[in-house]
């Protein structure tokens, strides 16, 4: 790509398995992109250096001058210390108290804004995708866990110096299923892609899911969103039932959110939703509308995220610009 002669912004999405960096000009046109594996289990010191080298490669490969870098926004998994720009804890990476904001500022000599990754993804959808022009939007992203976020009147809903909206850790049933915290029966324990995969593995073992047995067997690491979707499409009724039950549970989560915030837009995202968009979105919306108070029934819609992997980087960069250059 041609060298950028004007200022540009970088958005970074730190995931459990991959990291993605992208550069944007002032009109939000992508002028460069760089993706790598996270390799988070090698430790936070190695991981943070990998973040830095990924950004350096992005700039080098696209002839982007460090002098023109206006700021960096980075979305990180888990709760984030907003005042100190630090990752507090990341169960999927095993990192604790990582001051990624200071590292980026010192390395690249520009402002850096750290936020939760689901917050970044929903803010991207609010600015550029499925939640544009929403007064209040809430995102639910079922994956290894169930991430949540809220954008209210153009701003990410955050706590006092800490990220919030951990909707996956709200109790939704009396089940004894656990999800990594002391409380059982959470939305994450009942409706994450991981919980679906665990129940699907049991179905394969019992002989109730012959198609999934052919595709992936009983190994949880192989029962990914694509395998689940293919099994449903090819007629594994027991697997479809698991997906529908999980979507109905998410529908109850939506009901709880509606009763508290009355968002006009519910955005569902993540690989599982992308793989079975029509089935999951319709089931969630129908179940929510059937159980919400009647006065709220026609005041919200459930939509699938539109931006895919770019939501996190676009949202992180846009939020950084909003915080660094407030109107």
Automatic annotation (TrEMBL):
- Keywords tagged on the record: Kinase, Transferase
Q: Which SUPFAM superfamilies match?
A: Actin-like ATPase domain (SSF53067)
Gene3D superfamilies in alphabetical order = 3.30.420.40
Q: What is its EC number?
A: 2.7.1.2
Q: Origin, by domain of life?
A: Bacteria
Which Pfam families would you find in this protein's record?
ROK
Give GO terms: molecular function aspect only: glucokinase activity
List the InterPro entries hit by this protein, alphabetically: ATPase_NBD (IPR043129), ROK (IPR000600)
Kindly indicate whether the keyword Kinase belongs to this entry. Answer: yes
Family membership: Belongs to the ROK (NagC/XylR) family.
Q: What is this protein called?
A: Glucokinase
């Amino acid at each position: 790509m041609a060298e950028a002669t004007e200022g540009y912004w970088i958005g970074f999405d730190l995931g459990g398995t991959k990291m993605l960096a992208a550069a944007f000009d002032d009109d939000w046109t992508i002028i460069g992109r760089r993706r790598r594996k996270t390799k988070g289990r090698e430790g936070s010191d190695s991981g943070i250096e990998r973040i830095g080298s990924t950004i350096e490669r992005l700039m080098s490969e696209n002839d982007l001058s460090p002098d023109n870098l206006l700021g960096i926004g980075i979305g990180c998994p888990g709760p984030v210390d907003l005042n100190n720009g630090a990752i507090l804890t990341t169960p999927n990476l095993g990192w604790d108290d990582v001051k990624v904001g200071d590292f980026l500022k010192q390395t690249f000599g520009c402002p850096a804004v750290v936020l939760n990754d689901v917050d970044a993804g929903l803010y991207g959808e609010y600015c550029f995708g499925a939640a544009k022009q929403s007064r209040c939007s809430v995102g639910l992203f079922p994956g290894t866990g169930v991430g949540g976020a809220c954008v209210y009147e153009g701003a990410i809903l955050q706590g006092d110096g800490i990220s919030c909206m951990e909707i996956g850790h709200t109790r939704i049933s009396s089940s004894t299923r656990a999800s990594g915290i002391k409380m059982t029966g959470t939305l994450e324990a009942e409706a994450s892609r991981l919980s679906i995969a665990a129940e699907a593995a049991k179905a394969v073992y019992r002989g109730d899911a012959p198609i999934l047995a052919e595709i992936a067997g009983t190994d949880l690491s192989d029962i990914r969103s694509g395998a689940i979707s293919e099994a449903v499409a090819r007629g594994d009724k027991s697997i479809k039932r698991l997906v529908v039950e999980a979507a109905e549970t998410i529908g109850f989560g939506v009901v709880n959110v509606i009763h508290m915030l009355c968002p006009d837009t519910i955005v569902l995202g993540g690989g599982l939703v992308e793989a079975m968009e029509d089935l999951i979105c319709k089931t969630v919306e129908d179940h929510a509308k059937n159980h919400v108070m009647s006065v709220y029934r026609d005041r919200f819609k459930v939509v699938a995220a539109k931006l895919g992997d770019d939501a996190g980087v676009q949202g992180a960069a846009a939020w950084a610009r909003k915080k660094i250059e407030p109107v």
